[in-house]
Specification:
four-stranded mixed sheet, Alpha-Beta Plaits, globular, 3 domains, about 20% strand, about 35% helix, 13 helices, binds flavin-adenine dinucleotide
Length: about 350
């Protein structure tokens, strides 16, 4: 691959130069060229630019000069080539739920929104993999998979796009058992900063061929290319799932329970720690009435006897470290309620101080 000049390609916030080196009027020329390519799918409206210049964090909006709504890999490549020719910053955009100002257009330029590329391209149930366009969200994929007996486990609190989740190397509550996006992306289609379309990785589980470019792009936050398709690992939905909650007198007791659980090799699917302040926030926001104490949320996956065994083993360990009221349940409604409360923890924390941002 040829070296890519620093200012010619994808520049998300972290990679933007200290000063804007683009020639005056450059961005206008790019907007004109993109208008010819995309027609009404290029927006310069203030509201659309503002929406694409901010994420869920406290950072104020830095709107791009225009937002390009791409529909295909080839179209993304054309947009990238136009921006590269004019050395104009380009920022990919998924659902804008990131938390570190990722999508802020500090030096203007073009935001490329791929939410319109939202098809599940293939599902290989026997091989436990699928291929999706970047605008497919994690919930959309799981709804699509519902009748196959398979699921995709990575679940950041937000219903983020799989392109954005790949670009931020997202994780979630299932990370302890299923890993993060790093372990679950098998391959990518990427438009690199000079507009070339490349494929990385593949379906073979055992392969040492070539550079591991997939890992380079996973977590690159839009700085190396626009991801236009993602091959993901899938898992069979476990026969049984149970959830448990346990309160502790001390934070140390909760932490020691986690350490012992992992060291004992108990294959917990989810394990999350909330301190007493967060529990108070979650109780108020999600209308729960758990003790306002350091608390662990657990989930166990396996056979019916397996999940009962895991829950009992963890309950025993928790008791040794001052855990009380260890309650576990297989009831789906209760499990969903518990994990929805966890996914809303960010908003619950913000609600403690109205008007604040995360
Ligand atoms: C309530 C809440 C809870 C969260 N919980 C967790 C959590 O538990 N664990 C965790 O890891 N994260 C968590 N997050 C953050 C979450 O991971 C990100 O919000 C998500 O991964 C970003 O996806 P997105 O589609 O919104 O991307 P965006 O916010 O649109 O973009 C994020 C970055 O990815 C780049 N990008 C987007 N799409 C592409 C693409 N197709 N190609 C190349 N680059 C692209 C953008 O340029 C930007 O740099 C949480 C967020 C919220 C709001």
């Amino acid at each position: 691959m040829a070296a890519i000049p620093y200012t010619s390609g994808m520049l998300s916030m972290n990679a933007q130069p200290e000063t804007d080196t683009t020639e005056p009027g450059t961005h206008d020329r790019v907007v004109t060229a993109l208008r010819q390519l995309l027609g009404e799918r290029l927006s310069t409206s203030a509201a659309v630019r503002e929406q694409h210049g901010r994420d869920e964090s406290f950072h104020r909006a830095h709107p791009p000069d225009a937002v390009a709504f791409a529909k295909s890999t080839e179209e993304v490549a054309q947009v990238v080539r136009i921006c590269a020719t004019h050395r104009c910053p380009l920022i990919p955009y998924g659902t804008g739920t990131s938390l570190e100002g990722h999508v802020a257009a500090l030096h203007g330029g073009i935001c490329i929104d791929v939410t319109g590329m939202n098809e599940v391209l293939e599902v290989n149930a026997e091989d436990l993999d699928c291929r999706v366009q970047p605008g497919v969200t994690r919930k959309q994929l799981n709804t699509y998979l519902r009748d196959t007996g398979l699921f995709f486990p990575i679940d950041p609190g937000a219903d983020a796009s799989l392109g954005g989740m790949t670009a931020t190397r997202a994780s979630g509550t299932n990370a302890v058992r299923y890993g993060t996006m790093r372990e679950n992306v098998l391959g990518l289609t990427v438009v690199t900063a000079d507009g070339r379309i490349i494929q990385t990785g593949g379906r073979a589980r055992k392969s040492a061929a070539g550079y591991d470019l997939t890992r380079l792009f996973v977590g690159s936050e839009g700085t190396l290319g626009v991801i236009t398709a993602i091959r993901l690992r899938l898992y069979g939905i476990p026969q049984a799932m149970s959830a448990a909650v346990c309160s502790f007198e001390t934070l140390e007791g909760a932490v020691n329970t986690v350490i012992s659980t992992i060291q004992s090799g108990i294959p917990v699917a989810r394990i999350e720690l909330l301190d007493e302040v967060q529990m108070d926030a979650v109780n108020r926001y999600s209308k729960l009435d758990y003790p306002v104490q350091p608390t662990l949320f657990f989930e166990f996956h396996g056979s019916e006897s397996g999940v009962a065994e895991q829950a009992q083993a963890v309950g025993g360990l928790a008791g040794e470290y001052g855990g009380s009221g260890f309650k576990w349940t297989c009831a789906q409604e209760e499990r969903n309620h518990l994990w929805q409360a966890r996914h809303d923890a960010f908003y619950a924390a913000m609600a403690l101080r109205p008007g604040c941002k995360g």
